[in-house]
# Entry
Amino acid sequence: MHMFNREEPRQSTLAYMRGPVAPLKRKNGWTLAEEAGHAGPDRIHRPLNRIEWDADGT
# Structure
């Protein structure tokens, strides 16, 4: 089972997950988005705010 049906949400989530180990002085939605090459933080925030998560993976 795939957690993401489209490539874009998958890539945005990976960019968010890479954030804690990124060589950035400040780590927030804007800096993570810039590091990932996005124009703004919307794509970084979307997986956190708009996707329904199933913690049990069912």
